[in-house]
Predict the structure.
Amino acid sequence: MVKRLDDMPEVEANHLRRIECPIYEDTPLLDGSPLAERRVAIISTAGLHRRGDRPFRPGDGSYRVIPAETPARELVMSHISGNFDRTGFQRDSNVVLPIDRLRELVADGVVGSMASVHYSFMGAFPPDAAKPHAQHLAGLLKADKVDAALLVPV
Amino acid sequence: MGALGHFLEREGIATTGISLVREHTETVRPPRALWVTFELGRPLGLPDDPPFQRRVVKAALDLLGRTDGPLIADYPEHVMEEADFTGWACPTSFAPMQIDSLAAEIDRLATWHDRAVAARGRKTVGVSGLDMPSAGALVDGALAGDLPPAQVLKEAIDDLKAYYLEAAAAFPDAGSARMRKEWFWSETRLSAALLALQPKLAASSDPQHKILGNLTLIPATERYRLANGR
């Protein structure tokens, strides 16, 4: 169990402390429909993509497209960091990209519907490199009638 | 991760997210975050536990109803470290001194990797497009002084790491994931090759080689553990 950086092994905590985080003056907050009426997409930053898609490269702020029906056996990970566990993903892709869990919540009526396409960035991006891609992505999400995104780090 | 929340919410898509490093989320202040205490690399907590994963997803999505952010909610469930088996040792000996080459080690793991793929129905090898003997040959060549482009080498090594750890999960008494990672970094010829390669990459005049050597090749925790003889 991981608590705060001060509880982690020093070497791991120091690595995480060195990651530069952007600071924003204010945070936008949208109101919206109840969850049972929302259409939700998953956006991962685990550097995931389909086998055969372009692997991620250092400084890469772009995203890869993961259609909702993509079988788990098609998914690979090309994140540049070696500092996180990958054996969980090797066992079960849902521990990183919970498409099956979201599908179940839709089937149970908890969530309105699921996007037809999900997306993955690679989390080590410089924010400025990702911003234009994220703005473009917002347009794609709206075209798919998505009104909420679940952001999943790694 | 939190930056995406700012970008998308500003463009009209409501966002909620999982936070693995609370200090980062406190700095970035995305609209909504569910802080979990899970291991890095496992944002949903437990592999092969759909009810647990579903509870985490639901808790994160429930935050969409709130507009009093930026907010960080604490997820109440925690994951204890996998049980270790005292005295566990890799049941199949792959100790470097008993195998004459990286190629032989890769070959010997093939049957275990086949078993792993048969059991799981999937593999995560396949970023580089190389087969494992070719990926191993690339590492051998790099060690001999023929450094390929960093991205080519990185993708080959990603695949080899996945191949080894997937194969080890199919050993008869596979132990915990942590133990298999220790096995990988302490006992395999591949890890010895990567550790020998690291200073060569770090000393390269190519900045991409430096990134690979200093950031990607060897986890910070393993570098520390190995340097301190633990």
Notes: The beta strands of chain B are 14-19, 32-35, 71-74. Residues 96-227 of chain B form one domain. Chain B has two domains: 2-74, 96-227. Chain B touches chain A through 93 residues (CB under 8 Å).
